Amino acid sequence: MTTLVTGAAGFLGSHIARLLVQRGDNVRVLLRPSSSNRAICELPLEYVTGDLRDKDSLERALQGVEKVFHVAADYRLWARRSRDIYQSNVEGTKNILEAARRARVRQFIYTSTVATIAVDRPELPNEATDARLEEMVGHYKRSKWMAEREALEAARNGLPLIVVMPTTPVGPGDWKPTPTGKIILDFLNGKMPGYVDTGLNFVGVEDCAAGHLLIAEQGKAGQRYLLGGENLTLKQMLDILERLTGLPAPTRQFSHRLALFAAYADTAVSRLLWREPNIPIEGVKIAQHKMFVDCSRAQREFGFQAGPVAAALERAVRWYQANGYLKESRAKKMRLAQAA
């Protein structure tokens, strides 16, 4: 059986591809010409060069494929051209859904995101939460909401598709890094003067990848499943990093208004310098409410159990240190401890 993985060069996708290879699957990956395969270079994979926006390349990639893990996404909280995010996340998803329908794949696992349901509600949001497009903050969240609707519509029209919604993966191999990985790196390199009152649900990336395979085996077509671990405030996450590294966590809490002002100022300067902002406006706006969720469904129905987030953060820190992401001066001050 040939399994196609999109986004295999990325953080979560590389871990999914690795588990599929370990299981014995024949794994094919779709890689853009500009993409690096550093995260998967040692794996015995079949490569197809292409792009989600290139329909012909999708036809080639899906020849003889029985199962698809569509993990690829443009995960940025800032882009010089916002339409690039929609072209990849929405149009690209529509393209591969249509190609999979024509190829008559046996199963399609679509990786969405917790962001499509993590909105303000009296109770913790879960898979049954019906969030609206106008509740999505920023181009990334809006594009993923729109792409998820395309996936669910394809399922209603007969495509054997399951939606998986990861929360916030952390752990080794986040080489780009993701926006969450950048927060960890900013802490490690002493670039975080303070924090805002916000929170996320965190999950170890290896657990999240294993959960994808579990849901592929036991999930029902047309259903959405959250894969998460622990709801933690940003301050709680930084305190865990302090305990793990011996590096001091920031103690100053900034108001959201001040953080937003700083983001607008940083963006204005970044435009003049032709660089990516250090403080994305979308990121600050998203942080105005805690993205806590109830992700117990996968635990009840499939026995999914994520490991401690502290251990995943420890693995992330060790990976960043081993791969040269830390300033030498900060690395010398760090005293890594094992997560309890």
Provide a compact summary of the structure.
The protein is α/β, with parallel strands linked by helices and about 350 residues long. The chain is built from 12 helices and 10 strands. β1 (about 1-5), α1 and β2 form a beta-alpha-beta unit.
List the helices and strands and how they pair.
Layout lengths: L1 E5 L4 H13 L2 E6 L14 E4 L5 H7 L3 E6 L11 H22 L3 E5 L26 H19 L4 E6 L1 E3 L8 H10 L10 E6 H14 L5 E4 L2 E4 H12 L10 H18 L7 H6 L10 H6 L6 H14 L5 H6 L7
Parallel strand pairs: 1-2, 1-4, 2-3, 4-5, 5-6, 6-9, 7-8
Antiparallel strand pairs: 8-10
Helix pairs in contact: 1-6, 3-4, 7-11
How would you portray this structure in words?
It is a single chain. The protein is of the alpha/beta class and 340 residues long. It has a domain at 2-173 and 202-229: Rossmann fold (3-Layer(aba) Sandwich), CATH 3.40.50.720. It is 43% helix and 14% strand. The chain has twelve helices and ten strands. The protein has helices spanning 11-23, 55-61, 82-103, 138-156, 179-188, 205-218, 234-245, 256-273, 281-286, 297-302, 309-322, 328-333; strands spanning 2-6, 26-31, 46-49, 65-70, 107-111, 161-166, 168-170, 199-204, 224-227, 230-233. The strands form two sheets. Strands 3-2-1-4-5-6-9 form a seven-stranded parallel beta sheet, with helices on both faces. It has a three-stranded mixed beta sheet with strand order 7-8-10. Helix 1 crosses helix 6 (205-218) and helix 7 (234-245) crosses helix 11. The protein starts with a strand and ends in a 7-residue tail after the last helix. The model has no long low-confidence stretch (mean pLDDT 92).
